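Input structure tokens:
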């Protein structure tokens, strides 16, 4: 089971590296960003010089973090004995890359990876929100709210709203079938209510 997740994460990392190399040579994504800089929301604070490289760097890291988060959550939940409860959710997050839905535009380019990463990050955000609502703590100490807002702005409306709806639909279907219940979940919640997340954050700094 864990091997399957590791294989999916490795495939995502390979896709990201391929697109990164392609972007370095073509700079097509950077060129597409340049005319949009003046119209981006004022909440996105950019350096006076080098705004386009800064945004491109953000996008690359945003995409890379999907694999980091899936890997960390897999290890955390496996060690806690609750991996089976969250495996279907993590598989969907990976599948947004490996088998992107038809709604994603221009597969194989960094702009498409941004859309796929946005779907995955928003799904993980929804899972965390539902877990907090049900259990009183997050499934993992991840807060991508600000980064997701920036990604939403870069993707642009109304398309980003369509991606949000796709995530909400997936989350509803998945979480109706896979409830966060049972003794291992209860033990996981009590342990982290008592001890916090210091151990996880020191081991998986990507979560911060």
């Amino acid at each position: 089971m864990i091997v399957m997740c590791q294989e999916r994460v490795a495939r995502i990392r390979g896709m990201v590296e391929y697109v990164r190399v392609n972007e370095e040579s073509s700079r097509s994504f950077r060129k597409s960003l340049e005319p949009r800089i003046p119209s981006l929301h004022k909440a996105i604070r950019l350096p006076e010089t080098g705004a386009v490289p800064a945004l491109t760097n953000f996008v690359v890291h945003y995409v890379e973090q999907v694999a980091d988060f899936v890997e960390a959550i897999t290890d955390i939940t496996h060690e806690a004995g609750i991996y089976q409860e969250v495996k279907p959710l993590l598989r969907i997050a990976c599948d947004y890359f490996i088998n992107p839905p038809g709604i994603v535009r221009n597969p194989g380019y960094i702009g498409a990876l941004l859309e796929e990463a946005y779907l995955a990050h928003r799904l993980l955000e929804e899972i965390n929100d539902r877990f907090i609502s049900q259990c009183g703590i997050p499934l993992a100490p991840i807060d991508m709210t600000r980064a997701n807002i920036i990604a939403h702005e870069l993707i642009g409306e109304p398309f980003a709203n369509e991606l949000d709806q796709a995530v909400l639909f997936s989350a509803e279907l998945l979480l109706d079938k896979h409830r966060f219940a049972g003794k291992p979940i209860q033990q996981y919640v009590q342990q982290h209510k008592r001890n916090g997340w210091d151990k996880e954050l020191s081991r998986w700094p990507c979560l911060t």
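The chain is about 75% helix and 0% strand. The mean pLDDT is 87.
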